[in-house]
Amino acid sequence: IYVPFEDFNGHWSLIVVCLKEGMIYHFDSFHDPQTTAEKHKIIHTVCNNIGEMLHCTPYPGEYFSAFHDLGEWEITQANNVANTTNHENSGVSVLDWMSMCDAFTANVSPLKNANVVRMKTTLNLVQRLHNSIAEQVKEKAEAFWDVIRNNP
Predict the structure, then answer these.
(1) Confidence band, pLDDT 50/70/90 cuts, at residue 45
(2) What is the rounded distance in angstroms from the CA atom of residue 96 to the CA atom of residue 75?
(3) How large is the average pLDDT for residues 76-86?
(4) Between these two residues, 126 and 63, which has the higher pLDDT value?
(5) Are 11 and 17 in contact (CB under 8 A)?
(6) Residue 59 near residue 31 (C-beta atoms within 8 A)
(7) Rg (CA), the chain
(8) Cα separation of 99 and 16, whole Å?
(9) Burial bucket for residue 140 (CB in 10 Å: 0-12, 13-18, 19+)
């Protein structure tokens, strides 16, 4: 479960609740030991709320019943996250980490080019089935590529 998290200073990080491992990972490009306890308290509150949502009626009880007390799970800092004070790109880091999807790992590579991450995220969101303009964007992109191919 991926949860983008904006802290009290406007810095974005990512909470990943890994149900498979029973672990909460915190991807934070501005890891400050002085604020860790406060951030962990907030993260545990968020995870408690997630746990309550998992036990609501629409979800199959037999599956999620194993995941109780999420707010008590251990929080681990993700490995190899570049420590930076740059709040401007903290959201870009979160987008990049979220793009891992099913390839989740607690070991991350250094921040990529911010514009590439933004474009990749935008394209992924536009192409989702739930996006009502996905087909229109696809048609216009194909028409644009036809123009480029026919007019070298």
Answers:
(1) very high
(2) 20
(3) 72
(4) 126
(5) no
(6) no
(7) 19
(8) 12
(9) exposed
More confident residue, 55 or 102: 55
Read off the DSSP letter of residue 109.
P
Tokens encoding 120: 């990749």
Contacts of 36 (CB under 8 A, 6+ apart): none
> Does residue 118 sit in helix, strand or coil?
helix
Angle at 76 between CA 43 and CA 31, to 5 degrees: 75
d(CA 99, CA 119): 12
Residue 95 CB partners (closer than 8 Å, separation 6+): 117, 118, 121
Model-level pTM? 0.64
